[in-house]
Design goal:
Layout lengths: L7 H32 L3 H26 L5 H16 L8 H29 L3 H30 L5 H19 L15 H5 L1 H7 L2 H31 L4 H25 L5 H17 L7 H19 L2 H7 L6 H29 L2 H22 L7 E6 L2 E7 L18 E7 L2 E6 L13
Antiparallel strand pairs: 1-4, 2-3
Helix pairs in contact: 1-2, 1-4, 1-5, 1-6, 2-4, 2-14, 3-4, 3-6, 4-14, 5-10, 8-14, 9-10, 9-11, 9-12, 9-14, 9-15, 10-12, 11-12, 11-15, 14-15
């Protein structure tokens, strides 16, 4: 799994990711303390609204950035976003009104919605070997899980020596370090996609590719399963441990650590597993694990049982989330990857935007048993939908028929472009109107100008 770190570009990008994640974790702790300073007993309402704004920013901004990311110099764009995030975070200690918190959180997460999918789409261009890329995905999963475990501990150590405002300064410093690490390497240039003309076609390109690709429709359904189980863990762990089991803050931390441990165990073993098991089988197994594990909450487990259950749910989430990058990479041309990664970022967070408040409201108003039941049903629905939407086999190359047609775009002569030249067209790649004759052939299929819908063979 450490093989990707031998690649200098990836090593610096991974270090940038880790530093930024730790900084983000420190901000999460500091934001809770700031909310209490500003709102007192209504701090929960402030944080809930901030979380909704976060998800809303992710869902709104990511597709917009995905539509233009290929036009921007990657390194300068990522560095600029890191600098912007540092500037926003360093302002948080100076806020005096709740609305100012909301404005800064919206700006911070709007920048993150631009940074994260662009960053993720850069990795497969840097690591073209699928085995190495899979190992890199597992390393990224480990980084997320370790951040969840270590950031609260680091924040606690820091708060023993400094005021919570200092955590915002540390986060800003982390973003500056991340910017420096990105600046220290040369990133592969984004490739120009072949798209139909028009602003609307460009803005919706990532979503159209995503929603017209069967394996990605299955991935979206599994994202619903992940968000259903994950919302139960994130939102209701503290309620279950404190109210039902009579535990304290330490027990809450241990339960969340159990979920992270389950995720890390799977992340460590996944590269070897995916050499023997197709992604579809592994990810559907993850979805089934989430549905069954969430339903097991109806058995009202004690502290040890809840730790085991959260461990299983963490493992199920990693089984679904870690291989997702392989599906996205396989399902788009290099020029369309930023848009497709952005679509995944937005659509998966839209699922969380539904399940976060659902888990909280059901737990508070109806009871934890009802929350377990409804979210388990959602996880089961998502897994069943994925099994239906994502056909077994899922071949890379598909023999299919093209009807005749005509269009214009930048192209070279390849399997779809074989026509005589008259001399005015210029060197390849070139752009001019051309007509396609009906043909039947076999090649790797992705949604593009020549395959606007998935072929039915």
């Amino acid at each position: 799994m450490l093989a990707p770190l031998g690649h200098r570009t990836y090593r610096h990008l991974f270090a940038a990711q880790v530093v930024a994640l730790v900084g983000t974790g420190l901000t999460t702790v500091a934001l809770g303390l700031l909310a209490y300073d500003l709102a007192g007993g209504r701090a929960g309402a402030l944080l809930g609204t901030a979380l909704a704004l976060t998800m809303g920013a992710f869902v709104t901004f990511a597709p917009l950035v995905g539509a233009i990311a290929h036009r921007l110099p990657r390194r300068a764009f990522l560095v600029g976003l890191d600098l912007g995030r540092a500037g926003v975070v360093v302002l948080l200690p100076f806020v005096t009104e709740v609305w100012q918190v909301y404005a800064l959180i919206l700006a911070l997460n709007g920048a993150s919605a631009a940074f994260t999918p662009t960053f993720q789409a850069t990795i497969p261009d840097s690591l073209e070997d699928e085995k190495t890329y899979t190992e890199a995905l597992s390393l990224s999963r480990l980084a997320y899980d370790l951040e969840n475990l270590l950031s609260p501990a680091l924040a606690g150590l820091a708060l023993a020596a400094i005021a919570f405002d200092g955590l915002f300064v540390a986060t800003a410093a982390g973003f500056l370090v991340s910017a420096g690490l990105v600046l220290s390497v040369r990133l592969p240039a984004a490739r120009e996609p072949e798209r139909a003309p028009g602003v609307l076609a460009n803005l919706t390109a990532g979503l159209r590719i995503y929603l017209n690709t069967p394996r990605l429709r299955g991935l979206l359904a599994l994202a619903l399963a992940v968000s259903a189980a994950g919302a139960m863990v994130i939102v209701n762990t503290v309620v279950y441990v404190r109210d039902r089991l009579g535990g304290g803050e330490a027990e809450v931390a241990w339960m969340l650590a159990a979920s992270g441990a389950g995720s890390m165990i799977v992340a460590l073993s996944l590269p070897r597993l995916l050499e023997r098991v197709p992604e579809r089988a592994a990810m559907l197994a993850g979805g089934g694990t989430l549905a069954i594990g969430t339903a097991a909450g109806l058995l009202a487990p004690g502290l040890a049982g809840l730790a085991a259950l959260w461990l299983v749910l963490g493992a199920g989430m990693a089984l679904v989330q870690t291989p997702a990058g392989r599906l996205l990479r396989r399902s788009a041309h290099a020029g369309d990857r930023p848009a497709v990664f952005s679509a995944q970022f937005a659509l998966s967070h839209a699922c969380w935007l539904v399940t976060y408040p659902l888990a909280g409201w059901l737990g508070a108003e109806v009871g934890l048993a009802a929350a377990f039941a409804v979210l388990a049903a959602l996880a089961l629905l998502g897994t069943a939908a994925a099994a239906t939407l994502w056909p077994p086999g899922d071949p890379i190359e598909i023999e299919h028929i093209h009807p005749g047609g005509a269009h214009e775009h930048l192209h070279v002569h390849d399997a779809h472009h074989q026509h005589a030249h008259e001399g005015w067209e210029g060197p390849e790649p070139h752009r001019h109107p051309h007509r396609h004759r009906p043909m039947r052939h076999r090649h790797p299929v992705v949604i593009d100008l020549h395959h606007p819908v998935w072929p039915d063979r």
